[in-house]
Amino acid sequence: MRGILDTPSPDGFRRVERRPRVLCVVSQGAGALLRQLVSEGVSPWLSVQDPAEFDTGIRYPVLGGHFHNACAPAGTSPAQAARACDALLPVFGDSGGTAGLVSVPVPDRRAGGGTALVAAARTVHEKVGRRNAVVRLPASPDGIRALADLLAEGIGVHASLVFSGGRCAEVLDAYVAGLERALAAGRPLGAAPLVVSFPVGRFDREVGARLDALGVPADAEVRGAAGLAVARRMYRVREERLSGDWWRVLRANGALQPRLLWGPGADGGVGALVGWNTALALSVETLEAAALAPALTGDTLLNADAEAACALRALERLGVSVPDVAAVLEAAELHRLRHGRPVRRGSVPAASPGSGSSSGPAAEQP
């Protein structure tokens, strides 16, 4: 919520300045929820809509004091990103590199793909100049190839726009391939973390729009189930990919377990996305709303793959193709990135973790 601050100026006139919209104080209830999430292995990431809000989160004790990671919005300057990294550097050191990270986006037009993507990501990382910065790029086929190259060079990556378990598997395979190359080159594997994000709220709203078109009742059990089902599938995919002997070799050489980052949406769903070594992209407003919801009930993702499969089959029977939803959302966002256009409002929400500029809910705009 934006506030107006009336302040005197040296020339004797009074000027009105607008405070950035991000809240500067976290309530006791929200603070308690953050501690609960952390105890369940969930890392809260500060997610805001614009660079001014992000800068406020850095200057006040929101970042570092409450949130121990952050997603910088599109338009954040390298200096702003560096300040955020500095604020989180103690957390980064204390955690051994598993927290204290700042996700910095590759500029939208460069993020669309092509041979310039790796060079653009290198440039972003070099300009920020902090070891706890990770570059954010979309997990398109071009992005996945770039991801492996960057990890091999020791640059951490936040893979965004992951809308399916299959795409998540491709990203994790690229992570292992990149770390193999880094190991062969003698680079420290712990210097290149991976974050994989899925905008759960956005996915649910697109599915909801399709259910509306099919005349499915508002109180149907399938409503709001798609995003959680896909998240559970991704969680299972990560378990499968990290169960092999070669991953154990990489882990023994310092590789960090990739973290899954959920965008729950401004309308909630925080309590449904609890699992070890996962994360939530949250604005302070969304956090405060979640603090008023029922208490957490523990892990909701582990050993839930069968339940997820049932939910996805139910949607397919109703005529909602979950793979098609994933393909449409990915194509729409990549088109926006390549052409520098804003995401349309409507059935497709305006933002997702890692998607760049947005006018949508802050909880889905890292």
What is the CATH homology-level superfamily? Aldolase class I
In the CATH hierarchy, the third-tier topology is known as TIM Barrel
Largest sheet: 8 strands, parallel, barrel
Strand order of the largest sheet: 3-4-5-6-7-8-9-10
Number of domains: 1
Task: Tell me the β content.
Answer: 5-15%
- Counting DSSP E segments of at least 2 residues, the number of strands comes to 10
Helix/strand/pairing category? alpha/beta
Coarse shape: globular
Order of helices and strands: EEHEHEHEHHEHEHEHHHEEHHH
Mean pLDDT: 86
Q: Note the gap between the termini.
A: 18 Å
Total helical elements: 13
CA-based gyration radius: 20 Å
Low-confidence stretches: 1-18, 342-366
Using the 3D structure, state the CATH architecture. Answer: Alpha-Beta Barrel
Helix content: 40-55%
CATH class, named: Alpha Beta
List the defining traits of the structure above:
366 residues; 8-stranded parallel beta barrel; two-stranded antiparallel ribbon; Aldolase_TIM; schiff base
